[in-house]
Amino acid sequence: MYYKDDFNLTFKEESAFYRYLDDVEKRAEWFRAQSKDLKVEAVTKDSICSPIGNIGLEYLKEDTLKNSGLMIKTPDRSCYLGISAVKSLKGRARIDGKALAELDKETLAYILNECLKVSKGKSLLRFCEGKVRAVLSGDEKDYSIMSMPEVYTIAGAYIYSDFETAAFKSGCADHNLVNATWELRDQRLNESYQELLGRYGKTFNGELSASVRISTSDVGSSGANIFYTVSVNDQYIILGETLKVRHKNCKGTEDFNQNMASIFEYYKAAVQEVLQLCDIWVNHPANAMIGVMKQAGFSKKLIAETVERYRASAGEQPCSAYEIYCGICDVISIVRQQETNERGLLLLEEKVAACVNRRWHELDIPGEIKY
Q1: Theoretical Cys-Cys bridge with 70: which of 48, 81, 112, 202, CB 3.0 to 4.6 Å?
Q2: pTM score
Q3: What count of other Cβ atoms lies within 10 Å of the Cβ of residue 317?
Q4: How far apart are CA 11 and CA 268, in angstroms?
């Protein structure tokens, strides 16, 4: 059921992925309203929203009560608020903080309304699958609408033309984000990885394959981003995000098009960033791994499993942060065995990628550290 806030869909066929994007684009609507004219209400059993095509209003209300518990009114219509819109609505009201999540819905609605009364300018609202999914800035200098089908059409065109072999691997979508991944094979991928590895006195022999993921959002959760991973001799290494194109200055899609023309250069930049970890020497690798994974927000169970796997293969010998990072990347294969869904794996990949820029030296400490 697309209207549900916890909706998510996985695609194995590229044609099905593009059909979904086109269908959503046709059903969705953008509209603007003065921010000071927006009014937020807590949803009750007596709440009524404006009529919607082919979605039962009672089903919408029931799902909203389970999630955001809010509805938003403009001078022209009343709409239930999707959970994906709560963060952007707080942004328009210029308020934030963990305490807001602990308030009852009536109090939260009151605070939002008081703040919206003094807001200036217009808000841009995205209405999709029966609810408002985002409340963004109505100024195109702050947020420019990027057509999702167009973004992925551009991405696919460059990927298939720039690499020797490219194949659609998977796609997934929910109300926050859309992701699509292509598997790549190209001699240049091997050569550039070997060249960069050689600068640090390291070599590898064997097969290298890569994948590139394009992620974007039309609710303000993300720009249009490129995310790389490689597999080297069965070692899965997450290179992370190398490009972020923001929805700003009326040029979102235009900027993305220009940047996709350099997609191979972004691969080299991603490899270079990870390989810089070779310059960081760590005397207590297991402890550093625990500290880095803790900071990145991994669960105690996953940290324990990953560290024990690393210890079993590498022991406690001092090494570079690059070797430890490769060990952290093993968390993906651990989680795959637990039948985690595609969306969960993608979120985990982003956590792993965030480990690259941690303060490794500060976490290289002796003694016993608890998970």
Answers
A1: 81
A2: 0.88
A3: 8
A4: 28
Query: Over the Cα atoms of the chain, what is R_g?
Result: 23
Q: What's the pLDDT tens digit per position in 304-338?
A: 999 999 999 999 899 999 999 999 999 998 998 87
Determine how β-strand 78-81 pairs with β-strand 131-137: parallel
Residue 264 and residue 170 in one domain: yes
Domain end call among 72, 103, 137? 137
Nearest to 240 by CA among 276, 207, 288: 276
Does 251 share its domain with 160? yes
- Residue 115's closest CA among 138, 136, 90? 90
The pLDDT tens digits of the residues spanning 206-258 come to: 788 899 999 999 888 877 888 999 988 778 899 976 666 665 555 667 778 87
Domain that holds residue 234: 148-268
Phi, psi of 199 (to 5 degrees): -65, -20
Distance, CA of 306 to CA of 310 (rounded, Å):
6
Q: Which two tokens stand for residue 31?
A: 């509209």
Count CA within 13 A, CB hemisphere, residue 207.
Answer: 7
SS3 content of the chain, % helix, strand, coil (to 5): 45, 25, 30
Domain total in the chain: 3
CA dihedral 292, 294, 297, 298 (to 10 degrees): 100
* Whole-number Cα distances in Å, 257 to 14, 154, 191: 20, 6, 26
**What pLDDT is attached to residue 243?**
63
Please check whether residues 118 and 169 belong to one and the same domain: no
- Token reading at 196: 């960069």
Length of the chain: 371
Q: Within the chain, where are the H helices?
A: 14-27, 57-66, 86-93, 105-116, 148-162, 187-198, 252-260, 263-275, 285-296, 300-314, 321-329, 331-336, 342-354, 360-363
Strand-strand pairing, 70-73 and 208-216: unpaired
Q: Which of 137, 157, 190 is the last residue of a domain?
A: 137
Distance of CA 95 to the CA centre of its chain: 23
As given in the structure block, the two tokens for residue 33 are 């309203």
Per the DSSP assignment, residues forming a β-bridge with 281 are: 320
- Using DSSP, state whether 30 is helix, strand or coil: strand
